[in-house]
Amino acid sequence: MDINRLPKTELHLHLDSSLSYEAVKKLDPSISRQDFLDTFVAPPKCNDLNDYLKRVEKQVDLLQTLHSLKLAAEGLLEMLEEDNVIYAEIRFAPLLHIRNGLKPHDIVETVLDTFKNAETDIEINLILCNLRYFSEKQSLQTATLVKDFSDRSVVGLDLAGDEKGFPLDNHIAAYRFADKHDLHKTAHAGEACGPESVRETLEKLHPTRIGHGVRSYEDPNLLELLKEKRIHLEVCPTSNIQTNVYDTYADHTIDKLFSEGLSLSVNTDGRTTSNVSLTQEYKKLHETFGWGEEQFLQCNLNAIDAAFITGEKKTDMIQKIQHGYMGHG
Ligand SMILES: [Zn+2]
User: What cofactor is needed (predicted)?
Assistant: First the structure.
């Protein structure tokens, strides 16, 4: 099995945690690869999610011009090509890039245009994120951006950031707004906090997908609820080991969640912060849990089923995936 060649989908991928060395070198030609690794890659074991998020900050610091955002998008596209990704939903928080006066609309437009103008067969859509600490007004502003660009490949709203430190309160209005305008919704939960956080997120924000959600495994009733409501989990194993949700890769619940029949996909979260590609993530699953084509195919079909695209596009993607897995066994 040539894991690299298998067609892949990625639903949970942050632009601001996936800055390539080549992109940074264009911004600062003096930076060595070692400097890059020291500055932007988080250690394999951070204290917790907040410790990890501090490393992301250094990438956000660089992404305060339209030029740097364009380079980041181009660099990420190259990484997706190397992994043989055929469909990706890339997320970022426009309001994190306005420190030097950029306008949120221009930020979204630049990232969109970079992907649209690229010579690639990869289908890419964008998800816009709120951070937990955002005010209700900021949160609504992001939801409004999703609506404004909903006819141009911005396909959904997300909530990311410090799950432990900030409640959902400021974000309920934005998710209601999304409901009202038929916008797709996902939200990070069940990463730094346990199953109660996943439940609360489902009850208050009504997303169809949960970013991570891996600690749902601690509550069998919640697993039943996730199956009943067909909630998809965007699982990012390496990132969870790094943020200390689990001690080692072998301790991760992904294999158990998969065996339980949950709809889940495999994702990198932040390719640079976690120093991982999607191919490497698949290889780890193969080595640790013995996953092969059967599991990878299922995860990719799950991802397409849960993707924020039309039924017609889904059919198209499913064909591409099935074709890619035939004859590789
Ligand atoms: Zn994430």
Answer: Zn(2+)
